[in-house]
Every structure is written in C-alpha cells, then in structure tokens.
Design brief:
The structure is a homodimer of 152-residue chains. The first copy, chain A, is built from six helices and five strands. Chain A has helices at 3-11, 18-30, 38-47, 54-66, 109-121, 138-149; strands spanning 70-72, 82-84, 92-97, 103-107, 125-136. Chain A is flat. The first copy, chain A, has 152 residues and is an alpha+beta fold. The longest helix of chain A is centred in the N-terminal third of the chain and has 13 residues, at 18-30. Chain A has two domains: 1-87, Orthogonal Bundle (Arc Repressor Mutant, subunit A), CATH 1.10.10; 91-152, 2-Layer Sandwich (Dna Ligase, domain 1), CATH 3.30.1490.190. The interface between A and B is large, with 39 and 39 residues. The first copy, chain A, binds a DNA duplex (25 and 25 nucleotides) through residues 10, 13-17, 19-20, 37-39, 52-56, 58-59, 79-80.
DNA sequence: GTCGATGCAAAGGCTTTGCACAGCC
DNA sequence: GGCTGTGCAAAGCCTTTGCATCGAC
C-alpha cells in the first residue's frame, strides 16, 4: 500500500510525502462514488487529525489528477470536485440533480462508442469521455410539482 | 426579430433593453458553433461600438441561459463559455482538444438514449444531457509525438 | 411615474503563487 | 546535503453585488 504511488512519483522525479499519502488514502477510504471539493478534502483531513494545508490540498489534487489517480468532475455548479479514478470505475457517467446536487453514477458502453466514433472521424486521439446528465431527482421533481400548484 | 425575446421577458415581468438585445444579437450573428466567455462577449461588443458593461454581460448571460436561449458549456479548462441554444442545435456534443482548446461538435442519438435510460431507471426527470470528449487534435497529437522523441 | 436595468467600483469566492523552512531521498 | 514539498499569507482571476442613476413600459 502506497508503494505504487511512491514509484509512480519517483518516475517523475517527485517524492512521496505524508500529505500526498493522506489525500490519496482519504479517497480510497471513502470509495469510488464520492465527490469531494478541495475544501471538503481539507476539512476531512483536519477532522482525522491529519494536518494538511489547503494550498497543499490544491497542489496534491492537481498532481494526483495529472497522474490519473483522481478524476475531476465537470460539473459547473458547486465548484470543482474530485473522485477516485480506479480502472474498474472508469468510463462511468453522472446523473446529477440540479436542485439538491445529489448524484448517481451509471455506465453505458454506447457513450464511449459515441466518443470514439467522433474522435476517430476527425483524427483526434481520444483521452476521456464524460457524460453529464442533468435532471431532477424523484424528490425534487415532486417538490417542484407542489410549488407549481401552490406558489409562495 | 427581437419580439420573441421581448415577450418572453415580459412574461417574466422583465424588460427588453438594448444591452440584452445586443448580447443575443451577437450570438445569433456568430452562429451556433461558437463558444464565447463573458470577457469575449464584452470585447466583441466593444469592437462593434456597442457599449455594454462587463457586469451587465454577466447578468445577461445568466438571464439568457435561464431562459433557455443560451447554453453554458461544461468545460472546466478556460472558464465558463456560452453558446446559442437553438432547437436544431440541441443535443450536440463537444470534442475538445485539451492542448490547444479547439473544439469540434458532433451529434449522436445514442448519447441522449443513454442519458434517458439512466434517468428513467432511477426515477429522475431528464433536463439535459452533455457529453464532453477530451482528446488531442491531429496537430497537437503530432506535436506531442515530436516532443517525446526530442524533449527540450 | 414606477420599477426594473445599467454602470461603476468594491467585495467575494475559489485557486494559485512567492518565499522561507522542513523533510524526503 | 541537495532539491523537492510544505505552510503561510498575499496575490490573482473570474464573478457577483451595492448603490446611484438611467430608461423601458
């Protein structure tokens, strides 16, 4: 545990520090489906008695993303968020409620195929294929229907 | 021209101002495939002798997006950008070069179907379905290959 | 004439950066 | 021991907001 990270870093002439280890540990502990902002990562580490400065959290999130260990979500609402990017979990997509912010994940090979077709047809080399479905979750859809009946 | 916008605004108790007209005009003039940031909108309007403050540009972009006349892109790199959201142009997707930022658009009904299936399966009400494909364009892929051969 | 919209400048949030010191290799 | 990484605070960027004035209806 941690040696994979260590050697990946060494290949790049970089070092394994306790801070980097703690950030990656956190994401591994909370599992694949959870999306955290830099601020949330910072808060959780403080709660765990792991003192890491916010600046280092930002630097580490960028580093781990560039190494492919984390993945940045492309959801404009609510700022940048990151999640673990495990192989088993790659090419999954997000269903986001625009009202309460809750997210569900799903997979569908047709999406990757569509991205590949588009990239190949234009001579692009595909790197990543991200589908975001914005929607209302069942609860928020019900709430909204109520508000339309009796506004105010 | 402009009366559709006027009556849409009046329905909401809002007014058609020259500034709002100018922003929408700009997007209609440049066509569907072009994505502009708030700053770029501001610059173009200045160039056209249409004096609109940057604050108003921001307010207007948000307004027109909430009315469904513009659509915000979800590309983290390079800040928020907007494009015209015509019916004929809905449900198109973006192929983005992460190196030079150039974008291509494409359509593929399989993407919308995937989004609909995910939403329906979980009881969500689908609003929008956005696929972003990150890739290297032919030129940047070639440049990168060269750099790997002879770094520095 | 009223009430919403604009322009300006200041404030705000989030993120990055400069620098001295700490600590990994 | 050298050189990368950290922490802190300051700066930076993009966006929003308060307020007086303007102008659409």
């Amino acid at each position: 545990m941690g040696d994979g990270l260590r050697s990946s870093l060494h290949h790049r002439g970089q070092r394994l520090t306790p801070q980097r280890q703690r950030v990656l540990d956190l994401f591994e502990r909370i599992g694949e489906g959870t999306h955290l902002s830099a601020e949330q990562v910072h808060q959780r580490l403080l709660r765990d008695q792991s003192r890491v400065s916010l600046a280092t959290v930002y630097r580490t999130l960028r580093l781990l993303s560039s190494m492919g260990l984390l993945q940045e979500l492309e959801l404009p609402e609510g700022g940048r968020r990151f999640e673990l990017a495990s192989d088993a979990h790659r090419d999954h997509h997000h269903l986001v409620c625009i009202r309460c912010g809750c997210t569900e994940e799903f997979e569908n090979p047709a999406v990757l195929e569509a991205g590949q077709a588009a990239a190949e047809g234009r001579g692009f080399r595909l790197l990543e294929c991200v589908l975001n479905v914005r929607a209302l979750c069942p609860r928020c859809a019900a709430d909204e229907a109520l508000e339309l009946e009796s506004p105010g």
